Amino acid sequence: MNTVAIILGFIAFCVVITVAVRALRARRLRELLAARRAKYNLNFAERRRHVQTVRGRQVEDLDEEEITAYEQRDAARNQNIHFLRLLVADLFDEEELEPEQEEEQREEQVLARQSWIEEHQEGLDQHAALVEEEEIGSGVTVMAEIAPEEDDIEERLEREGGKGGEVQLSLAWDDYNDLDMHVFCPSGERIYFNNKNSECGGELDVDMNVRPVSSNPVENVVWTGQAPPGKYKIGVHFYKHHRKRRTKKTTSFRLRVMVHGKSRDYSGTITSGSAMQMVTSFTLKPNSSTSTKSVPL
What we know:
Helix content is 35%, strand content 25%. The chain is α+β, with helices and mostly antiparallel strands. The chain folds into two domains: 1-40; 44-286, no CATH class. A six-stranded antiparallel β-sheet has the order 2-10-9-3-7-6, with helices on one face. A five-stranded antiparallel β-sheet has the order 1-11-8-4-5, with no helix packed on it. Strand 9 (250-259) and strand 10 (262-271) form a beta hairpin. The longest helix is centred in the first third of the chain and has 39 residues, at 2-40. The chain is globular. The model is unreliable at 288-297 (pLDDT under 50).
């Protein structure tokens, strides 16, 4: 009897601890988000009164005929990336290395990547322009609120020193592959690993896994000042498959779009060798009225 009581007491203790830890983590995430808003986005509430945010259409919004047309365009994009020979593995690849060897070759691999980018810049720009024409996002909208124990994007950003701002776009995935976020700005600029600062104020301030250094990476594009009105499109490209610790050639990712303090989360998968995906888009429209109403993300 005493043994049963001890076991039941231990189970109850574990439940209490688990609930307390989850509550503490949820509170910490809320405080972190509030602190980031206060630090980088002092006037977002005021600006929000004068801006409408309109979300772009997703594949899930299409009828049968539109889906067929979308799939045809998607197939053309996949053919395009092969035609332009933009698969990194076609040019250089690496075997799985020990940590000491990995560090020794780090600089060599970074230089090889930059050389490859310079050699294929024209093709990369052509493929990006084709993807930019897409008006339908491939992202799958997830729950408006994610359970705190399943949501660590803010923690990853804090770990890497990522900034917050009026418009903030954050990409996270859970393996050693190198995914890249491409943001097409209203000005016509594209923010990505080879153009980290745009003339319209956007900045790619966190770019990870050029070398496979993290199994829980994050990337971040942010406007710490006022973001210009117009249409924004967010694409995801599977740049490089790193053969490390059984990392596979298909990666699941999460994209968080935060505009004026309101966020929307998307999830999707992307496979090595496939075209860049247009995940979602949104439009910032100046609003002359003083109403606080806005179209939700």
